[in-house]
């Protein structure tokens, strides 16, 4: 799916453990979101981001019946993403955890 360094593999495990500790469970997909899928962050608005994406979903989780999902009437989805490049404000890692409403799925991107 994605080439991770040993440090990134360890960080992925820690991020998932934290999500699981807060009641999130692994899911295979939610709509077009799925592990291995290309996405772009909603703040990534250059032309290539829309057509090629800027990262790949490594893990997809959901917190069933969370307060957030009850308030907003939509699933509480959190994911771990491997960005193609580290973020400008945090160059220590290409990994991040974020919610589904921060991303757009990029269909047809082959990377």
Protein described:
With 111 residues, the chain is α+β, with helices and mostly antiparallel strands. It has one domain. The protein is built from three helices and six strands. Strands 1, 2, 3, 4, 5 and 6 form a six-stranded antiparallel beta sheet that branches. The N and C termini lie close together (10 Å). The model has no long low-confidence stretch (mean pLDDT 91).
Number of strands: 6
Task: Specify the biggest β-sheet.
Answer: 6 strands, antiparallel
Decide which structural class fits the backbone. alpha+beta
Low-confidence stretches: none
Q: Tell me the span between the first and last alpha carbons.
A: 10 Å
Tell me the number of structural domains.
1
Strand content of the residues, in percent?
25-35%
